[in-house]
Write a structure and sequence with these properties.
Length: about 170
């Protein structure tokens, strides 16, 4: 049996500490992409009981990542190209996720990649001073460091939901 190396290594073109956090964020995404590779449209669109569909969760993951990047880190200056990837709101009036139906896997993957590329571009040029500099908002102060922590936590949570939905649908 081949011995595994379980290491967190900084991504090279980032400040090393930031690169370690980005590696963690990217590793979560890698596991999601591996698991959803080639899934069918019904698997993307099926809503189990009163829960969410995989497509809805993928849309939500991308939208929340973009929102934290543009609103908290960059102060509300959205890239119009990224904004156009989200024609629907995130939630319904009852606070449930908007049911995203009929968008194929390539559309979801494009949205996820576009947002992530944009996030990586901004964090790649960041130094430790900016990484830890609080952004002063109306209801809270937040650092880019905390934003990445939150995005890791957020995507991990929804990764578990996606994996659970897939295991039920494959039964």
């Amino acid at each position: 049996m081949k011995r595994k190396n379980l290491l967190v290594l900084p991504i090279l073109d980032f400040e090393p500490e930031i690169g370690r956090w980005i590696w963690c964020l990217e590793d979560i995404r890698r596991t999601i992409l591996e698991k959803i590779s080639g899934i069918s449209q019904p698997f993307l669109d099926t809503k189990l009981n009163e829960g969410h569909s995989i497509g809805s969760l993928l849309y939500h993951i991308a939208l929340i990542e973009a929102d934290w990047l543009y609103e908290e880190v960059l102060g509300g200056k959205w890239n119009p190209k990224i904004r156009s990837l989200f024609p629907q709101g995130d939630r319904n009036d009852d606070n449930t996720l908007t049911h995203i139906v009929g968008q194929d896997l390539d559309e979801h993957l494009h949205r996820l990649k576009s947002v992530r590329d944009e996030l990586l571009s901004h964090f790649r040029s960041m130094d430790l001073k900016d990484w830890r500099k609080p952004r002063i908002l109306n209801h809270y102060d937040v650092t880019p460091e905390w934003v990445i922590y939150h995005l890791i936590e957020h995507e991990s949570h929804h990764r578990g939901q996606i994996f659970q939905i897939l295991s039920i649908l494959k039964e």
